[in-house]
Amino acid sequence: MPIACFALPAAGAQNAPMNRDLDRLAEQLGLDRADHELVRLRFGHACALRVRHLLEDPAVLACLDGLGRYLDGAIDRAHLDALAAEAARLANHHPGSNSIDGSGHAAVSASYAVANALAGRALRAAEYAAYAAVYGPGGPGGYGAVMDAESFGPEHAWQCRQLAALAGAAP
To answer: In sequence order, what are the residues at sequence separation of 6 or more whose Cβ sits closer than 8 angstroms to the Cβ of residue 105?
Structure first.
């Protein structure tokens, strides 16, 4: 069984460039304030949806869909909390986590994006989603790409625009 800590970045993700513009925007918006929980959930959901195609486990997909249902008002907070716990468990036990570079596997990072989105950790969800997008098919691809800060540029720019739009701020 792999040992993983949900709050820590996956190996490889720690080397991914941070989205400093997104961090600044989040600080300006006060994203971490309690009254911005819905913005955090919506932004995390949007980021996770961008890497949905990389998810391999139907149970993780169901968790992501559950977040969408919560945002649409179709399920209650208790159900959301249960989905968040399940998504964390699934991400920490993803089969790709067994390899030395398991977190380099785009599906693992996408799973962590979902788990963090459900937990309301929007910036962490964005980091994992960016890593998955760059590493995975359709992105620049591979270990070399994630080590190149420029590979993250388009995804980081999208994230900033998306958060600004969701928060009602000018892009």
So the answer is: 94, 96, 99, 135
Residue 35's identity, in one-letter code, is D
Reported as a single tens digit per residue, the pLDDT across 95-116 is 765 444 444 478 899 999 999 9
For residue 95, what are its two tokens?
Answer: 């089969």
Tell me the C-alpha distance between 165 and 98, whole Å. Answer: 38
Is residue 78 pLDDT above 50, yes or no? yes
Amino acid identity of residue 67, one-letter, is: L
Distance of CA 42 to the CA centre of its chain: 11
Given a contact cutoff of 8 angstroms between Cβ atoms, the answer to whether 108 and 98 are in contact is no
pTM as predicted: 0.82
SS3 per-residue string spanning 56-79: CCHHHHHHHHHHHHHHCCCCCHHH
